[in-house]
Amino acid sequence: MKTVQTINDLTNFLECNKGKTIGFVPTMGYLHEGHLALLNMAREENEIVVASIFVNPAQFGPNEDLDRYPRDLERDTMLAAKAGVDALFVPTAKDMYPFESGITINAGELSNKLCGESRPGHFDGVLKVITKLFHLVQPTKAYFGQKDAQQLAIIETFVSAYNFPVQIIRVSTVRENDGLAKSSRNVFLSDSERIEAVHLYEALSIATETWKKTKDVNEAIAKGKSHIEQNTSGRIDYFDVLTYPNLKANIENAEQLLFATAVFFEKARLIDNIIVEVKEV
Which residues does the annotation mark as catalytic? Predict the structure, then answer.
């Protein structure tokens, strides 16, 4: 595996592999089994695998956890190499944003709900870095986990609307044995919070089963929220049911539904979701 920091080094690597299919996995590092699932799929489906590790300051708001976001480049490098990555791109903020252009990308209506409601500007920053990475890497396929369902929906819509020449591949959420979604932020949970955190997925499961039986969204949401409130010390940011991937509240004629929640613990904000195929219900 080749580790490259500068854009010139990345360009040179890609030039040496011109004509080969490229699978791309953008990450913020502190790799876990969820990231490895993306890398493994990219390895299976492409001739070359490029991964990036960049804690993107553009997607962090004031008082968010940019400075304390977990980092371990030595461990990440070892894991990436073991997963068969050909090139690991690890730029600095100065490499990625050498000057302020004054040009911005607005994620629009899809970002005004769920995580975007409490993190204004977050998805604008996601699209900023994804645009740059896609232009630099020029991947054939790019791989994203369904745990970040709103991010995935926004990226899919953005790529389709603006004709990016890349195929977005959805990869199912990877979970711990007790159901907790793998996340770099799980390390910030206390021992008691870690035990409680499993109830996010349990609450989503209760909500989906309630909806399947009753087709009543309000009842499904109420039961899901109640389960979290009764079984955790966390504070619910949101618990909602929307169409997927267009994230509409009116679920009539929807093909997929997103049951999603976010919960604040003392030092971590966790998200999770379940996507339901309506035609299978």
Answer: 35
* Three-class DSSP category at 91: coil
Among 171, 203, 237, where does a domain finish? Answer: 171
Distance (Å, whole) CA 38 – CA 14: 20
Same-domain pairing of 235 and 164: no
CB count within 10 Å of CB 268 equals: 20
pTM: 0.95
Is residue 179 a part of any domain in this protein? Answer: no
Q: Kindly report the number of other CB atoms within 10 A of residue 53's CB atom.
A: 23
Binding residue numbers for (R)-pantoate: 59, 151
- Full domain range(s) for residue 264: 184-272
- What are the pLDDT tens digits along the chain (281 aa)? 999 999 999 999 999 999 999 999 999 999 999 999 999 999 999 999 999 999 999 999 887 889 889 999 999 999 999 999 999 999 999 999 999 999 999 999 999 999 999 999 999 999 999 999 999 999 999 999 999 999 999 999 999 999 999 999 999 999 999 999 999 999 999 999 999 999 999 999 999 999 999 999 999 999 999 999 999 999 999 999 999 999 999 999 999 999 999 999 999 999 999 999 998 77
> Which pair of structure tokens corresponds to residue 48?
């070359």
- Residues within the annotated binding site? 28-35, 59, 145-148, 151, 174, 182-185
Longest dimension (CA), the chain: 57
* Cα–Cα nearest to 120, from 70, 58, 67: 58
Residues 6+ apart with CB under 8 A from 214: 220
